[in-house]
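User: I'm putting together notes for a lab meeting next week and I want to include a structural view of one of the chains we've been expressing. I don't have a solved structure, so I'd like a prediction I can at least talk through. The sequence is below, exactly as it appears in our construct file.
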Amino acid sequence: MTNNIQSSVRRYKIADQVYDILRAQIIKGILVPGQEILVDQLAGRLDSSKTPIREALNRLKGEGLIIGTDKGKMSVIKLSSKEITHICELRVALEMLALRWSFENIPREKLQENLRMLREAEEKLKRGDPTHFYEVDTILHNLIVNSAGNQWLSQIISQLRNLIEITRNMFTSIERDKESLREHIIIIESLLKGDKEVAMKNLNSHIEHVKSHLLCQILHQEEEISENLVKKTK
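Assistant: Thanks for the context. Below is the predicted structure for the 234-residue chain, given as structure tokens.
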């Protein structure tokens, strides 16, 4: 009995590790949207048995990062323009709610620290290096959401933002990163001034800009795919 329990614990620990690795690779775009997921291939690459791989994939499927097909295959989710629109609209509604709940609880010292980090990232972006910005990009959003003190709200928003991140990594743009960074700074400055309505307006504007940028890129991609299909049928 003890050996069986220990074996189960080890298996779940491996599944957790595999889950963390695959989740990070999906969100960062290492496993690209639409890419087929092959259990045998993953097992060899991660030096793992198939059972932990399947358990990790089931968790990712439950989070919407992996989707299944009628033929039993699995692939990384690839969102359509309509799906991105819905996800961004859900996100803005929920983050606005989070800011309404958290406004009085957001620590000023953490806002100031985030502002300092963004200023450092701004200098690196000017030199064409977005790495630091990507590291601090989510800090403000996490600060707002976590300060609301509602675990269900945090979980839902995190899932929505992961889906957006997957798509955003398909269309990286230094110019858009610069705009996004400035929008973050504007939000923080309004929060530090204690202006709730302006802060909510700035947050809403920022997420709407995220949506507009992604939709523009996805619609262009969808048009190219459609044109290529037409050419092939001629």
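A couple of points you could mention at the meeting. The first helix runs from residue 2 to 28. The longest strand covers residues 66-68.

User: Perfect, that's what I needed.
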